Amino acid sequence: MLLRKLLTGSLAALSLSASADVLEVSLSPATQPDRFKPKDLITLQVKNNAPIAHTLTITPERATASGCTGSIPAGGTCDLTLTVTQFGEVSVTVKAADGLYETFHGPYVSALRVATFNLSFDRKNFSDLNTQMGYNRTTQDRKIKDWRDGKLTDDTKIQEAKNIVQIQNVAEIIQRTRPDILVMAEFNNKGTGSNNDALTNFRDNYLSLTQNSDVGSFSYTHIKNVSTNTGLLSPFDLDNKGGTPALPGDGWGFGFYHGQYAFAVASNYSFTDYKSFQTFKWLAMPGAENPVIDLCNGPERIPEGKNCGDPWYSDSAWEQFRVSSKNHIDLAIEVPAQGSSTLKKIHMLVSHPTPPVFDESARRNYKRNSAEIKFWDDYIKAKDYFAPDPKGTNGSTTDEKGGLKQGDYFVVAGDLNADPYEGDGDRQTILGLLENPQVNTAVTTGSLIPTSKGAQEYLSSSVCKRNCQRNNGDTITSTSGLRLDHVIPSANLTVMRSGVFWPATGEPGRDLVDDPKLGQGKGVSSDHRLVWVDLYIPATP
Fold it and tell me: How far apart are CA 521 and CA 506, in angstroms?
């Protein structure tokens, strides 16, 4: 927005046309990133459209300025460089000696961007994903070209080429949004989280290479795979189908192999303390009960030998049953506070609860999803019943018990598979977390809820099949028509803005979520959308 103020009659006498800006401030070049960090440079051009020279005073906000000193001649230009110094909206006022001025406002914001993205990198086995991540750019492009040119006849090779397109598109979405901290759901690993080959290759062979000439490459200095319960076979008949325990139904988390549906975290700030709750028992939660068979008159399966009202799991299985379908982690990351070189910890509280669907007569997915979300609701309330995996187990660097401490900075992030107003989940539980007094409710239920234009367009299209008539349609984060993916900052973090990467028709990046041949879901990139929040730790005494 450009502002102009005429304070003297002499300037008014210049008889400029009504549309002319005497002092004009604009980006140079016109296309620059939409977000900057401290020490980044913003380049501007100042133009004097008046028939007389002007001596300028430069007043920046949240930045220092260099260039454009002295007098600028009639019709002349000068280059102005802003060096970002603080989190917040960056602006500059260019003022002439006789009172005329222009103020240039962002939308440039310097802040910590935290995001979650379900990448849909699920593959039939980990080896396929690892192989695809290992291809260099030349190999990627050759395989895609062969597919597009119709040279491939083998279905496996065709699918591999499409998978490479998907990975490239996901990488471009991340490059366009450039989160400082990114939670990546459905990034398969070998189960224990100890092997980073696929994750490293995604960074080096995709993120670090430009996917679009209009968008720069982007990378991360710190990456972490997370151990998971998915595809980890239990010794119990958890699905009550009889016989020797077998995957996927008898795993501690649903998966056809250990590491399927796992998640990872990437950051440009250092990781410090880490707690894994992979083995935390469901029965350790207050009020927890072995799921009972309570859908008794419908089509849902009641196992042979059980009746309505019976507990689903055997006593021995329930005593060992883990609450997390994948994992719950508390990963501390050191980030700068506003206007300070001091680093402070933000606790990234990450999980990916089981979807509350595909259920049987005990509604165990519904109940487990609710418990997995309640875990964080209690954790940020500093309840004391939490015990992480022992130090050195599943990556834990500490076995300090209990939830967060009062005043800790945190962000709950991930595909929580729960919408507070629609869908099959326990709406009261997810709403309880979103309305918890420990969280910044402007982001969760208020004026800063992440939204997109593409979401509402999708709901109004013929492609939408579910939840198409819902309220708050611009808040949805998946092609299911539900708001499933959440970034929930603590109340003591300052939030500036938020969004969902779901471009509408005509907006940049639309082809990454809508392709005539590959569709709008996992074929083109993901059936989920990246959700981001710009925030910072405020300066403290």
Answer: 19
Taking the CA atoms of residue 85, residue 267, residue 522 and residue 35 in that order, the dihedral angle to the nearest 10 degrees is 0
φ/ψ (deg, to 5) at 343: -95, 140
CA distances from 506 to 20, 104, 511, 516 (A): 30, 26, 10, 15
pLDDT of residue 325 exceeding 90: yes
Residues near 112 by beta carbon (within 8 Å), at least 6 away in sequence = 87, 180, 181, 335, 346, 534, 535, 536, 537
Looking at this protein, which amino acid is placed at residue 73?
A: P
155-177 vs 126-134: helix axis angle to the nearest 10? 70
For the entire predicted model, the pTM comes to 0.91
**182 alpha carbon, distance to own chain's centre:** 6
CA distance 275 to 296: 40
Q: What is the pLDDT of residues 228-242, one digit of tens each?
A: 999 999 999 999 999
Tally the C-alpha atoms within 13 A of residue 180's C-alpha that lie toward its C-beta. Answer: 22
* Rounded Cα–Cα distance for residues 439 and 101 (Å): 41
Please report where in the chains the tokens 């042979």 appear, as a residue: 304
SS3 state at 155: helix
Q: Which long-range contacts (CB under 8 A, 24 or more apart) does 19-23 make?
A: 20/49, 21/49, 21/102, 22/48, 22/49, 22/50, 22/96, 22/100, 22/102, 23/47, 23/48, 23/49, 23/50, 23/54, 23/56, 23/94, 23/96, 23/100, 23/101, 23/102
3-state SS of 79-109? Answer: EEEEEECCCEEEEEEEEECCCCEEEEEEEEE
* Contact in structure between 94 and 56 (CB atoms under 8 Å): yes
322 by DSSP, 3-state: which?
Answer: strand
CA dist., res. 266 & res. 294, Å (int) = 41
Q: How many CB atoms lie within 10 A of CB 454?
A: 23
Antiparallel, parallel or unpaired: β 271-276 and 328-336: antiparallel
Other C-beta atoms closer than 10 Å to the C-beta of 75 total 12
SS3 45: strand
List, in order, residues 6 or more apart from 391 with CB less than 8 Å away: 397, 398, 399
CA 187 from centre of chain: 13
CA 22 to chain centroid, in Å, comes to 43
Burial class (CB in 10 A: 0-12, 13-18, 19+), 474: middle
Query: Which secondary-structure segment (H or E) carries 536?
Result: strand 531-536
Given a cut of 70, is residue 3 above it in pLDDT?
no
Query: What digits encode the pLDDT tens for the residues 101-130?
Result: 899 987 778 889 999 999 999 899 999 999
Nearest-angstrom CA–CA distance, 287 and 131: 45
The answer to whether the CB of 14 falls within 8 A of the CB of 4 is no
* Coil/strand/helix, residue 41: strand
Structure tokens given for 54: 């002007």
- Strand-strand pairing, 101-110 and 112-118: unpaired
Q: Which pair of structure tokens corresponds to residue 130?
A: 């690892």
